[in-house]
Amino acid sequence: MSTSHQPSRRRFLQNVAAAGAATILAPSANRAFGYRSPNDRPVFATIGLRNQGWTITSKSFKFADFAALADADANVLAENVSKTEKAQKKKPDAYKDYRKILDRDDIDAVMIATPDHWHTKIAVEAMLAGKDVYCEKPLTLTIDEGKLIEKVVKQTGRVFQVGTMQRSESQQRFLQAVALVKHGRIGTVKKVTCGINGMIASPVIPVAPVPEQIDWDMWLGPAPKVDYRALPELREGYGGGVPLYSNCHYSFRNWHEYSGGKLTDWGAHHVDIACWALGATDTGPSKITPTKFTLPVEYKDGHPVVNDQYNAATAFEISVAMPNDVEMVIKSEGDNGIMFEGSKGRFFVNRGKIVGKPVEDLADNPLPDNAIEEVYGGPVSANHTANFIEGMNSRKQPISDVWSHNRMLEICHLSNIAMRLDRELKWDPKKREIIGDDQANSFLSRESRKEYSINM
What we know:
It is an enzyme of class 1 (oxidoreductase). InterPro entries: Gfo/Idh/MocA-like_OxRdtase_N (IPR000683), Gfo/Idh/MocA_oxidrdct_glycsds (IPR050463), Gfo/Idh/MocA_OxRdtase_bact_C (IPR043906), NAD(P)-bd_dom_sf (IPR036291), TAT_signal (IPR006311), TAT_signal_bac_arc (IPR019546). The chain has helices spanning about 5-20, 50-60, 75-90, 100, 115-130, 145-155, 175-180, 215-220, 260-265, 265-280, 355-360, 370-375, 385-395, 400-420, 440; strands at about 45, 65-70, 95, 110, 130-135, 160, 190-195, 285-295, 300, 305, 315-320, 325-330, 335-340, 345-350, 355, 425-430, 435. By secondary structure, it is α/β, with parallel strands linked by helices. The chain folds into two domains: about 5-170 and about 385-395, Rossmann fold (3-Layer(aba) Sandwich); about 170-200 and about 255-380 and about 405-450, 2-Layer Sandwich (Dihydrodipicolinate Reductase, domain 2). The longest helix has 20 residues, at about 400-420.
C-alpha cells in the first residue's frame, strides 16, 4: 500500500483490534453489513493460486491490495505475480512457503485456495497469526478439522468467509430458491434432491518425474508421502496445461488423500443451499444411507487397496434423513442442481435457471419486497469478497460462516465414509459423532505427517 494510505490503514487495524477483542463471533446471526471508507483498503495475500486462487484474487482487486502471493509451484506463482502486478500496478512479494506471509504484520487477511488437504492447517495458523481468512470450499478434509476451525475462530475472534459463492452470486437464483421455501410456496418440504454429477475413473497412473517447478513435498504437506504420478496426456480447457491424469494439479479432487470427490466439490455448493432452505444450518442428519454407488478401485476396511488410480466414488445415490422427516437425496445422475419438493409443488434451481410452477406463480403472487434481503440478512453483496470485507469492518460473520458450512459439509463427509465402508451410518448431530460404530468414527479425523502438523 502506498505511503499516503498508511494513516487510514492504521486506523482500520486499530478499529479491527478493538472490535475483535470485544467480540466473540457466533454463528450467522451476527451477519455483517456496510463498508467503512473506501480509503480503508485492507491488505491481502493469496495462498494457492492455480485456477480458483486466481479467480478469487482477481475478483478482489477492487476491494483490497495484494502484498504477497504463495504457491508450491514456481511457474504458477510467477504467472500470478505477473498478472497481479499488471492489475494493481504494484508487484506483490512471492513466496513458496506460506508461513512467510503469516509472519508479516502488514497483511490483514489471507485468501486460501490450495488443495483441500492444506486448508485447515493454513487457516488455523493464519488466524493464530492475527489474520482474517477467506478459504475456498470445501473447507475441510475431515469432520474434526471443522470442529478445530470453529474453536480457533471463537478463540481468536477472526472473521472467516468460506468460498461458497452461490450464497452471494449466481444472479440471486439460490437466494430466491431459499426464499420460496421459507415463505411456504411449496408447502411442507418432503424431499430435496441435489444433483452434483459423477467422476470418471482413471487408468493406472504410473510414477513419473516430479515437474521441476513443483516442490512435491510442500505440495503434499499434511498428506502421506507418496510418489508423484502422471500420464503425459494434457488436460484441455479448465485446468489446461497439466496432466489429464495425475495425483497433483486439478485431479487432486479425485483422491481421498487430498479431497472428497464430487461429494465435497459440488456437494459443498448444492447441499449448502439445500440445508439453508431447510433451516438445517445448525443441525445435521440422523442417518446416511448409500443406496447405490460405484468406487473405481477395491476397498478394504474403508481404504483403497491400490495407490495408482483415482479412488473417489464415480457414481452414487445417497439418502440422507434430515430433520422434520425430510429426505435429502444426493446423486450423480441427472441435471446438476437442486430439486425442492413439497406438499404444494416443486421447483428446480441451478446456476443457469430456476423453474417450476411455484416460480411461474410469482408473476401473480410475488414474494414480499424484502424476501431476498431477509434470507441474506441484509443488502445482498454481488461479490463474495465484498461481503467478507463488510465482515472485516464490522467484526461480524460473513454470509458463508464456518458453522453453517461445517454442518452441511458433515453430510458430504459422512456420505463418503458410508460408501467407503459400504454401510448405513447413524449420526448424532448434537455430539457430532457416528452412533455405535467405532470404525466409522475413526474416519472423522486424519493424522498429518509430523513435519506438517498444525502449529498451535
